[in-house]
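Same chain as my last thread, 1613 residues:
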Amino acid sequence: MKKIAFIDLEVGGRGKILDLGAIKGEESFHSAKVADFVDFIGDCEYLCGHNIIEHDLKYLRPFLKKNYKVIDTLYLSPLLFPMRPYHRLLKDDKIDSEELNNPLNDARKAKILYEDEVEAFGCLPESLQSLYYDLTSGDEHFSGFFKSVDYSTGWRLSFLRKPLSDSIRAALTGLVCENADIEQFARENGVECAYATAVILTRDRNSITPAWVLKNYPAVEKIIYALRNKNCGTPSCEYCSAAFNPERALKKWFGYEHFRKFNDEPLQENAVRAAIGGESLLAIFPTGGGKSLTFQLPALIAGETVRGLTIVISPLQSLMKDQVENLEKKGISDAVYINGLLSPVERRDALERVRSGEASMLYIAPEQLRSKTIEKILMSRTVSRFVIDEAHCFSAWGQDFRIEYLHIADFIKSLQEAKGLEQPIPVSCFTATAKPKVISDITDYFQERLGLRLRRFTTDATRTNLHYTVLYRANNEEKYQTLRDLLIDSTCPAIVYVTRTKAAEDLAARLVRDGLDARAFHGQMETRVKVQNQDDFINDRVRIIVATSAFGMGVDKSDVGLVVHYEISDSLENYIQEAGRAGRDVHSEADCYVLYNDDDLNRHFILLNQTKLTFSEINQVWRAIKGLTQKRDLVCISALEVARKAGWDEIRDVETKVKSAVAALENAGYVRRGMNSPRIFATSIVPKNLDEASRIIRSDDRFTEEDRQDAVRIIKSLISERSRARAGTAEAESRIDYLSDMLGIETGKVVRLVEKMQLCGILAKDEDMTAYLRPSFSSRIDTMLSLENFLIGAVEDGGAGQYGFKELNERALSAGLSKSNVKDIRTLLFFWTIKNYIEKKPLSEEYISIVPKVDIHVLREKFEVRSSLSRFILERFRKTGVRDAVSNEIRVQFSLVGLLEDFNREIAIFNDVKATLQDVEDALLFLAKSGIMSIEGGFMVLYNKLQIERLNHDNRSRYRKEDYLNLDAFYRQRIQQIHIVGKYANMMVADEKAALEFVHDYFMMDFKAFVRKYFDDGEQREIDRNVSPQKYREIFGSLTPSQSAIINDRESRFIVVPAGPGSGKTYVLVRKLASLILMEDVKSEQLLMLTFSRAAATEFHKRLRELIGNAAEYVEIRTFHSYCFDLLGKVGSIDDSENVVDKAVNAVRDSQVERSRITKSILVIDEAQDMSEDEFALVRELVRNNDDMRVIAVGDDDQNIYEFRGSDSRYMGLLISEFNAKVYNMLENFRSCQPVIALANSFARTIGNRLKSEPIRCVVGGDGCVRLVRHPAGYYGQAVVDEILAAHASGSSAVLTMTNDDALMVSAMLGRRGVKARLIQSNDSFSLHDLAELHLFYSDIRANCSTIIPDNVWAHAMELTTGEFAGSSSLEIALSCIGAFEKEYPSKRYVSDLFNFFGESELSDFCKAARNEIVVSTVHKSKGREFDNVYLLLRGMTQITDRERRVIYVGMTRAKTNLSVHFDGGIFHSIPELADGGGSAAGLSIENDPKLYAEPDELLLQLSHRDLHLDCFKGKSDIISKLCSGDALNVIDDRLYTTVNGYSQQVGRFSEAFRTKLSKLQQKGYVPISSRVRFLLFWHYENPDKTNGAPKYLETPIVLPEIRLVSNSLTLR
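reply #2:
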């Protein structure tokens, strides 16, 4: 017997031998002394070990004293134990060992393995022994074994020896192709031929070539392919005739006798034969055409022939599950799927089945190709084919282009290179519907990326058992009644398709109420409910399913007899697929109905706009990535955090959207995306063996019993991986995600257990993490901890419920947290959410719902520990870190375990608080999310799902239009598809035969030829528009050329529109908004419009809603002030409005504003001439923070009449000069007659520094006149009244004045003459919140709800207010204000929106004149209005500036037909044609009225807050609260009185200033004759009680009176 030493050794990191073990005979050796080891083996002839040649001998040779014959058990094992379950001591490429540093034990196992190999070799037939010897004995990895067993074939005479190729054929008779060309392989690849022979001889389809063999001997795969995967086509070849017989395989696996045919064409069979023959192909099969079987059958055949794995890539999770389950029902267990629906254990089992060879089909989504685990698994298998289902997703011309599909070829290419394959892996692409352009896109993609030519299998056959009908139904009620009738008349299973998720649930619920058995199904449903509903339908427990397009993909239910599209699909492709869910049994008949109207198309257009990934959004993500990679090119970050950095907040499917944007950037070369690979290394294992590690785990209280079992499994896996790494046969695989996948333990739990093993000393405490501490960390930590402490108190007080961000911020500021802001509040709530402390749901932009998921005391305890830890960590890092001279950041290396031990040793011992590793991680996560530090490495990347490497380092670079071409083409195609399916529906109503030909041509013709055939020139323009033709005409059909130019400009980044009066500014702006949303690359929520009045914002919202429906709800239309209050996180009020814009600008500059609040694609500015310096600074900041923001500013510099508040039209000019804006003048006037226009143009020329150089042009024509009446100085308001009485003018009339006093004077005069006048009042001194009627309404609502206002609460407040103030003259105004709010918020009403609406609205917005009333107003309050007849009173306007000229111009241009201007002085002297008193223009007359009018007999005084001694109202609330607007008051001396129960009670007193004013009037002979309550208000004053907890302000009711005075002369008369 040969003397053999069985050896093993352990080697350190630098090749130093650490330990040795050996067995010879009954003797053993275990020591680290090499010399003693050499002496021990000195008398042996052979050395035997597992992987001894590539590993052990490399380190031993320098010390050996002689040459030994070598036996390597590793290389023999696949040859002698090729059949599952392989050898009991083997696991993949290594001896299965539970010990880490015990080479003696591994030497013993090598001895056992060698002995078993000797026995196995002896049991082989002599012919096979001889073959293996001839093939491998020349290789050092095998020669020693043959010598050790004294085996040789040298005795055989040469003429008796067969060629090796013949010997291989003989051994594999009937198992391989008889005509396979293997001579070259036999000569050059003997070892590979031996391995191939061994695995083929197993006859077990699940026994596969080990991964390490495929890696080291890639030719094994080629040989197996050559022997078993090429059909020689010779009938006499036993193997090929059986293995490649499609009919035989069809019968064997599926039980079918024949393949399905299309118009007698064997398309399915031909495609199967092509796949079996190794061709790449593209198959277009109709829905229900047997597509799945066409790729499943070749996959099963490849599993048998070459032990191959077919990868099926599908975007649909439900399809994967259904297909695998359908195969299992047929007894086929060869398929598995891996997606997010699987539990960790299910995922582990699926991966193990793939790894072990049990599975020959693996279904995955494209996203899984980013997984290192999947990549590693595929490297261990022979991949026979990639199948891409829904292959139209490759094409921008397909109905469902998915940019992640473009990564597929890159993955296949990298896999081929990693495997060293010379021949490309074949690909099969499948789709149910594809146009010629889609087909060419798919074939070009694989030709260009992988060099594959796809053989096409297409048919123009249609499903003859489906009967299509389109029924036009004008509205939803008609649709429902028709649907109900169809369902009642049928008894078969039915699918009803709708567009939106809510419609699915609502419609299903209504059908159930009507006694029909229906369930809903859509992609947003809870997975459990969704699966249950689908299973109930498939298994006939429910007859009707009401679903979105998410239902039906891959669902194989043969007896569906009715499909009804409640709304037509968004493309013919999807319609054909969805309708094809019916009649899957080709021998049955089925009906397919569409209930159609044009609104279906508009819903699809709006949905497309809401779901598309826009050019701007990709740039927003690119900007975010640039910010994240300023210091380091590689970042690991969650999709949600990228979204927040990009300015997207709380949007649906945000992770998918971010990944799609990153994929687009990757495709264009800006970034490279990888997968995070948090690692632990087996080299850091401390115990010597598994027993020692197990003892530590069992004795440590940190582990639960379940933990102990999983921890042992983890450490065993790490020991195994470390052994493999030491052996050099594979990379040590110890990533957290890999351990999770392969052990079936949740990722988070793996991390926890690894950390616990670090704590108890099983794993070394490597400093594997790096922190970068920001310079401002000291003040920042104080701010964030104080704010979090406040939030805990707020949630403790409020419990589960609805919270407003601004309300929380206001409370924090009031509590003394001066640095509080909404951005930080959102950050902290985000942190609580990811830590599972709360469940947070957005209710609106302002409100969220919070449900605590831990007890508030637990939350506070966690906060206290985290607060101490955070401060400790920052101080430790400050001391131990290294400060960067450029960035001023502090960089520090650390480990979690080290931090924990230091904290518990140095800090916790004094606080009687012991932190856990979880607490440390929470503190680090908190510091990272708070922006105090950034962290890299370690396990913190558990929260960071995306690894992004920046490739483009130019900070000025932007994602370009050229980069967006593919996506843009896809979305344009989607628009065209909606138009095309609409045309199909209309054709079906009129001519079914023509419609069916239309569908046939759509799929078979070149797209351009198809469009030319079926669409005339006008229609060809229409199908590129993201709106139906009918809607387009409704919105854009009546525009002038200048208006159209503005609407159609999609290229200019900055547009300024100087718009004259009456030019349709609002009309055009609303249509520009509609165009941006419906026809351009703009999401509703990406659009911001800023106005200067709430009334304007309300009007724009109302008109936009009328044009585009619900899509208008997401457009942000705000006043400058309310938007700035939002940015600051404050509830707006008059008291805080001063400098609010400036404060907001500074907050944006200092990055204190949540990014989502300022991320916009479009900024529209109304009345741009009214911008102040601060407002223009805000515009600049918004542009600076949005790389591609487009700005559209509209205004009339001639109407800038608010200079007193800082507005200046020069800022509108700066938009042009500073931003190089495109200028469009809107000069057509649709309001006024020619005489009014002529005067306005002449007068406008006297105004300086104008933007417009051209005159405005009259469009309406019509008769009208302008009368200019010059008076001597005096009170000639009476002349205006006389003219009104004499004129009897028809239509609306208004007297416009320059001052409030003149307006009051004219109003009193008209009243005395019996003319009904409506005085437009203002609320300059108070907010509408404080109007008693609205105060009561709001207070009642606030008392009964805090966020969303229920209908019953609203109704109660209305009833209370109308009852309490039934006799109030202000009730009409209050109800008008409430009604306006109802119209602006028709569906969901929020308390904060109501408060803001009252606060921003102006009293004048709700002062509506009756048809027979004369409006009396100042010019300032009339801006934006128009009247048939205008009487302009310019008393005292003698020496005027441009400021007054603009006010006068505004007054003139309010007139539609007739204008009378009463003036004194030389207002018109600078107009040449009017200077001499003449006037030749038609319709213009100039008159002189020499009469000197006396002071008026009657005056009306309206008092404001400053006219009253407000403190006198304190303590009188009982009396005042009994009053209401319109009630009589008495004026006695300087006091106001009311009568209560017959007694006079004082309610107020005049201020000193008003007493002086009244005294002067009395000296002129005026006396007060009556007074009434003009407004009942609430006045807020500072609380003198400063004790803690006392409110800062108190309120009391006050009255603002109106006093009528008459002259003594009138009294005497």
